[in-house]
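Look over this entry.
=====
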Amino acid sequence: MCSALVKEIAIVKGISRVRSRVLTVLAILAASLLTSPSAQGAVRPERLGHISVGVSPGAANPDGLTKSTLSSGQRNMPVTSRRKNATWHPTPADMNRPADEFERLRRAALTDGCASLTSARASGRCTRVETPAIKADTSRTISGARARIVSPDASRSPRREPDCNALPFRMNSCRNVGWGYTVWEVINGVPVKEIGGAQFEYATGVAWDYLSVNWSLRGAISVTALWGTELVLPGPDAVVSTGCTKIPAPCQSDGTSYYFRLTLGEPVHTQAWEQYETAGVGAGTRDIVSMLGYIGPVMVVRSVGAPHETLQFDIAQYNGVDGQCDRLAYGSTVGCIAAEREGDFIYAAPDYPTVGLVAQHVYDAQRALPNNPGWPAKGIVLTWADDATRDANRRHACPNSPPGDDNSCDEFPIARAREGGSLGFPYSTREVPIESNSSQGGLTAKYTLICRMLTGDPFYILAILPDGRWSWDE
């Protein structure tokens, strides 16, 4: 009996040695494939962002895989999977898919695979995309920590990152979308029971360039829940690109599409794209172009529970980011801004001491006037007026030159607001030194360009006193 046991142990050890050698050879082959030029195709690591793929640490793993973070030359390569029921095997093309190929993939994807079931389909599974939950605007966070003031002279950067707490807000678009899907068991053509699902949140951030038709798009997916069928590792497959892949599109990206796994983690996938307008503003053939519906990621997912269906999550259609490029604002310059936001005009005495007395007038008037003009969350929003309304406001509020050569008449709301005295709105005037009014005029011109204000655009006015108090403070 002991002799038989010894023989059995020897056999097991021999199998273990063979298995170890096989796994070693497979690992070497996998490493060579991941680092070979042919496997990477046209992937340019410097523009792919930081991506971690794999499975959650400590989780059960039927494929015998462990979590791995790929090096910069290997990012966006697929996680090797031996899952027997997998029907979609990502290739390097899935990770760096040309825009037209991703568009075909997107068009073939569904939002409700359970909607077209018939009684002929006796059993099986189907998937259904849930209603997206649009998160509140994540940028306008005045309360709590102070928003950062972006200097008009230092804000221009062709590769600036989104700054969701910086003023003026028209330089950034920052929105979050919560979304997910469910997997249903089908009996006699009817979905009868939820058997799995996934929930994720997609954060979108855009840094607009007010002096060019280029912008930077950043996206981050965090998976908040996986249950039932979708908990089977290595998790659902996903390919992500941007709304600029739509046909016809008013914009293009320097990147294409990228493959990853939906596994629990924060974040599962982050991506950076550099994009630019192609609809004619930059070329001089059009004066203004809206990017509504194009700015943001688009994701195609193949679930674990129903791998015969692909699901589409077009975040760009739902996040409300309305980027706008034009050549009308501030002369013939071209640039892009977050058109879903109001403009911000900032008269900051700590940075520009000569504007101090005008800042004090704005501070006092915003509190004294009954409609608190230009004060977010408390007063009315102001509206950018045309030249005729501006001139009428000036004549109404300051019909006569003030006494003395060193003073001038300052009015609030500013003459460029439709909510001025010539249209019957409450207003305030005060005599201030000419240099203070001139300083205000220079700042107004700078923020007019930064916010690319056009007739009818909404805006707010912030005054910051020499001691640091804000006119928007309660």
User: Anything to note?
Assistant: Helices lie at 2-35, 37-40, 92-95, 99-108, 315-318, 356-368, 387-397, 434-450. The longest strand covers residues 190-208. The radius of gyration is 29 Å.
